[in-house]
Amino acid sequence: MKKIINDPSTVVVESLRGLALAHADILRIEEDPALVVRTDAPVAGKVAVISGGGSGHEPLHGGFVGLGMLHAAVPGAVFTSPTPDAVQAAVTATASGAGALLIVKNYTGDVLNFETAAELAEADGVEVRSVIVDDDVAVKDSTYTAGRRGVGGTVLLEKIAGAAAERGDSLDAVEALARKVIGQVRSIGVALTPPTVPHAGEPSFTLADNEIEFGIGIHGEPGRERIAAEPADALLERLVDAVVTDLPFADGDKVLLFTNSMGGTPLLELYLAHGIAERLLGERGITVERRLVGPYITSLEMQGISLTLLKLDDELTELWDTPVNTAALRWGI
Amino acid sequence: MKKIINDPSTVVVESLRGLALAHADILRIEEDPALVVRTDAPVAGKVAVISGGGSGHEPLHGGFVGLGMLHAAVPGAVFTSPTPDAVQAAVTATASGAGALLIVKNYTGDVLNFETAAELAEADGVEVRSVIVDDDVAVKDSTYTAGRRGVGGTVLLEKIAGAAAERGDSLDAVEALARKVIGQVRSIGVALTPPTVPHAGEPSFTLADNEIEFGIGIHGEPGRERIAAEPADALLERLVDAVVTDLPFADGDKVLLFTNSMGGTPLLELYLAHGIAERLLGERGITVERRLVGPYITSLEMQGISLTLLKLDDELTELWDTPVNTAALRWGI
Predict the structure, then answer these.
(1) What is the number of structural domains in chain A?
(2) Do both A198 and A138 map to the same domain?
(3) By CB atoms within 10 Å of each CB, which of A153, A168, B195, B276 scores lowest?
(4) Gyration radius (Cα) of chain B, Å
(5) Which residue among the candidates B57, B61, B71, B274 is catalytic per the annotation?
(6) Do B2 and A212 touch (CB under 8 A)?
(7) A156 and A194 belong to one structural domain
(8) Could you tell me the pTM of the whole model?
(9) What is this model's ipTM?
């Protein structure tokens, strides 16, 4: 294993220090427990939108802390859920009187620890709601999951829920909106190479030279099937078909298409994939009205991509377009 | 080789199509010859700032086309210089009466082809100036280079020259400013893994499991030496020392620190490296006043990083801070 680290046990906190130095105008960090918090939190009168999960998926979630998106992120160890007390500390650091929404990706450890944290925070007198993202259509259950996994839809939800909180929506309203987004977002991923977790020191799985994992999870969990590598046109058709037929998305739908790099994919390939995906959606009568292309929910250095489709309406489009100022997403600022 | 492509011969143009679909508000493309052009070009009364070079370094240069940065980018085949007629076409597409500045990275093919293009454009009646970026302190000459290579400093120069053009500086003034930036910017890189060029089909070089290439070039060219992998603190000290002692940067200097991913480096490691670099510069009395952290000049999926230091003064800081609206960099918009 070759990595630019000092010690696997300090990699997360050392990385957070760099994040804080690079973006001191947007966020601050705490080290014990590890937190990433908006510099202006708590924001009076606004619902605090909080997410978190294992590290190794950067810029998720710390890179999405800032105006118009998350109020705090709770990074666990690499591919490990954050503890309940860390999540509770994030609520304490950001909740004003308007309550807090926890955005939880559907992994067993995250669900349990965020649930406990919500109980602790409620005992402190903060009104807390939780939503669970389970947008990955690849498999029904998975290595760390009862039910579907939460993947790329989380990024879109964090933007839209953050925008709703910013405009002053009530906790009820932000929660309802979050549930609506979760209901109409779907994702699928594919891996060409495995990631290497620092404390493991070896690749998480092995793929043959001509083999790819269709339906990969963001921790390198197995997907639907291992298949032979294929040309981009065929691969994108496979990915688009899996997502579109699930909701299903239909002729006439307007969507946000999020073409995500799993971390190690060259941007040259990512934009190529995005272009094909847009074309294939167009052929099905689905109009791409908004796009996000880049490495936004990753699995360390894993090569691969995921596609996320969110069915848009006027409200969601408007909330997507509002200003955001985070380390990873910035517009209207 | 596993890549998300259809055919090595069409990868650049297919990728450009995706870029154009994703960012139609900012740029348009031409396919023959391949160009990326600001939607509002030519911009009346403003110097056209143009760059280009081999593809495979995305988001360089097409990702930097837009308000406040490049007016056009000329992508060659992967790791291959664009042809003179393509560069000439970029000048024709963007030059208003104010002339054009060509930003050329110091590689033999680029220098020759941009020089020929400048002559062709001058024959067409456009006033053209060229500047050559040679900021890489790693080696004196290199595989594709007489003199030092042009690397990360190019990104910073494109922002600052673009800002000067946007505020209406004359061609003389933009050129003088570009030469000033080139005079006070220095870079060094390191690779942990090689890239794989699509039409080659095999990794560009081989490194042992515990070996890294110190002073790597952005095409995988050899650097200063192959060394054993070392902890991040030691590696960053080595990188910082190489850059700081070259100009040299001195106690009391104010700088922009650009911590760049070569493509495949996890963001977790990149921010960790950035944090260490800031600390080491501080220990030398060098104040980091601006930062850029991310994959901005890459070598396909190569894992590794580069550090670029630009000595700042009030003028450069002010130009860095002006609004920019490109696929890869966006602020103040």
Answers:
(1) 2
(2) no
(3) A168
(4) 19
(5) B57
(6) yes
(7) no
(8) 0.98
(9) 0.98
